[in-house]
Design brief:
The chain is built from eight helices and two strands. Strands 1-2 form a two-stranded antiparallel ribbon. Strand 1 and strand 2 form a beta hairpin. The chain has one domain: Butyryl-CoA Dehydrogenase, subunit A, domain 3. It starts with 5 loop residues before the first helix and ends with a helix. It is mainly α.
């Protein structure tokens, strides 16, 4: 099944695939295999003997791809007319700045914000000095901080989709896919302390519901 609408394919493209034969490709396969077991808490844990930065890098690429696909399903509903601001309910509004080309935060429509965001993330994932894919190249000292900012901002897309487009997700039959992707994301950022709790506030009730279900089963 293709998740892409024709008009979104030009803007929203998944990150180039992690090259086969690399250690990161092996890590990605490991992550996919443990995800297949259905135990998301186990799936996010750092595999024994692996480098934390590399594990975070591989998963960040994966979450970027997932969020890209999920958002791609609702682009016909997320328009400047329907979503004139990037919000997550009435209490939370996000303005865009990247610190380089846009230094002062600007108010923009949700689709414009997501467009800025996805292109900004793509540039960093493609930067071999920030996200090295070749064996022997060290991650930069500020990698963890950069990954935290990327994940914090990717969370905002989940938050917008849940608050503004959940009925559309349900009508498309994507509810289970969205919930599983988001729960995986939350377990990952919680496992390594990658997003501050206050940033998660727009979806805290949902996070509690999704994670408490698992706690009650264990």
């Amino acid at each position: 099944m293709s998740f892409w609408f024709a008009k979104s394919a030009k803007t929203f493209k998944p990150k180039k695939n992690i090259p086969e034969g690399t250690h990161q490709y092996d890590l990605m396969k490991h992550a996919a295999a443990t995800l297949g077991s259905g135990n998301l808490r186990l799936a996010v844990m750092l595999p024994e003997g692996e480098d934390l930065n590399e594990w975070i890098a591989v998963n960040t690429v994966d979450f970027f791809n997932q969020i890209n696909m999920l958002y791609g399903t609702i682009t016909e509903f997320c328009t400047p007319e329907n979503c004139p601001v990037m919000s997550a309910g009435p209490k939370y509004e996000y303005h865009w700045a990247d610190g380089k080309t846009v230094k002062k935060p600007i108010k923009c429509s949700a689709p414009k914000y997501v467009d800025y965001l996805m292109n900004w993330v793509q540039e960093q994932l493609d930067d071999e000095t920030m996200f090295p894919s070749k064996v022997g190249i060290r991650f930069p000292k500020d990698f963890l901080q950069s990954a935290k900012v990327i994940l914090k901002r990717l969370f905002r897309v989940y938050a917008h989709v849940y608050h503004q487009h959940f009925p559309h997700i349900v009508s498309l039959g994507e509810e289970a896919h969205l919930n599983t992707s988001f729960k995986h994301f939350i377990y990952f950022v919680q496992e390594f302390g990658l997003i501050e709790k206050r940033e998660l506030a727009p979806l805290q009730d949902l996070i509690d519901r999704l994670t408490n279900k698992d706690s009650s089963r264990s």
